[in-house]
Amino acid sequence: MDNKLKKYNCIGILGGTFNPVHKGHTMLAREVIEQFPDIEQLLLMPNNLPAYKDTDHIIDSEHRINMLKLVSEDIPKTYVSDLEIIRGGTTYTIDTLRQIKSINSKVKIYFIIGADSLYSIEKWREFKEIFKLCTIIAAKRDCDLNDIKDYSKKLKEMYPYFNIEFLDTEAVDISSSELRDKAKCGKLDVKYLDDNIVQYIKINNLYGWKD
Questions:
Q1: Is 60 helix (H, G, I), strand (E, B) or coil?
Q2: Which of 2, 110, 153, 211 has its CA 20 to 30 Å from the CA of residue 139?
């Protein structure tokens, strides 16, 4: 892991619980790679324990990593990073950015978030330092992108070192919690889950799935 990071000039980080990984995640990864060609590698990085989410329903990290590896095989310029899992504890973005910079101080980092997360980003731990260490890529989600762009201008006025790019993509109406609930009821939505992920969930009886 460390050796890989040392050789790159520019990386992207797509983090999340990936519980489970779904087509919204994979579509987002593909769009980032396509629209930001300077990104040499996009790190698919599962959280250990997310700071701002309920963690009771999160399955073992081994399964989440395995599912990410399955989808990563079909997406160029991506690899699965277990950096946050190995670090353990509650996952904070600032810790991840600092850890990467300690490995490669010169690497440019793009950090991908849902655009609506901008409204709460000032509540993130050491958010000002986050702004200094990376460029945010905001992906449209369930929000008005024009409103988000206006809000980002206000952030830029308050924090001159805040840098943001916007991902030109359509939001995918999909919820991991809904997919988990369907699995409990014996339904796996192939519209939103890749075939290899469906098979993995079935084989390992995840999310309450029972044959």
A1: coil
A2: 2
